[in-house]
């Protein structure tokens, strides 16, 4: 049986770094320094094998603690997929954030919309257009 934890000290940072920098399409090539900084400044979550204690999944959340949260870097070890580990992870994250009374939890996914729908996530249909900006001035038009 998988066990959810919101204890940041339990996260296997080396394993999570390998997962994200080598296997996750959105984070391949991420530097260790940036990875560690992101973890240190986020709420981090894991799912673990009850018998061995091995980490099976990871997620992190960036939040202001009042209105907004961004769920990101969700990853389930390939060998653990198809066993409900991702559902355990997302359910635990939502339960952890619920007492904050946030207005919105956002996430971005290229291919896992059906994983998140049962938890109430929907495509945005706001009257607003969401925009993004690269942090590097080198990418800005003159």
The CATH architecture would be 3-Layer(aba) Sandwich
User: Strand order, biggest sheet?
Assistant: 1-2-3-4-5
Q: Residue share in helices?
A: 25-40%
Give the SSE order as H and E letters: EHHEEEHEH
Total number of distinct structural domains? 1
List the total number of helices. Answer: 4
What secondary-structure arrangement, pairings included, does this model have?
Layout lengths: L1 E4 L7 H11 L8 H9 L2 E7 L5 E9 L4 E9 L8 H13 L6 E3 L6 H4 L26
Parallel strand pairs: 4-5
Antiparallel strand pairs: 1-2, 2-3, 3-4
Architecture overview:
This protein is an alpha+beta fold. The protein has a single domain, classed as Aminopeptidase (3-Layer(aba) Sandwich), CATH 3.40.630. It contains four helices and five strands; from the N terminus they run E-H-H-E-E-E-H-E-H. The protein has helices at residues 13-23, 32-40, 85-97, 113-116; strands at 2-5, 43-49, 55-63, 68-76, 104-106. The chain has a five-stranded mixed sheet with strand order 1-2-3-4-5. The protein is globular. The termini are far apart. 20% of the residues are buried. The mean pLDDT is 93.
In short:
With 142 residues, the chain is of the alpha+beta class.
């Amino acid at each position: 049986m998988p066990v959810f934890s919101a204890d940041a000290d339990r996260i296997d940072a080396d394993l999570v770094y390998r997962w994200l920098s080598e296997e996750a399409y959105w984070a391949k090539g991420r530097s260790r320094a940036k990875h560690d900084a992101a973890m240190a400044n986020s709420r981090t979550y894991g799912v673990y094998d009850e018998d061995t204690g091995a980490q099976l999944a990871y997620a992190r959340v960036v939040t202001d603690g009042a209105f907004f949260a961004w769920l990101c870097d969700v990853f389930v070890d390939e060998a653990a997929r198809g066993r409900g580990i991702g559902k355990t992870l997302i359910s635990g994250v939502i339960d952890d954030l619920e007492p904050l009374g946030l207005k919105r939890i956002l996430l971005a996914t290229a291919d896992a919309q059906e994983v998140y729908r049962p938890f109430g996530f929907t495509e945005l249909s706001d009257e607003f257009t969401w925009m993004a900006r690269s942090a590097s001035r080198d990418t800005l038009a003159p």
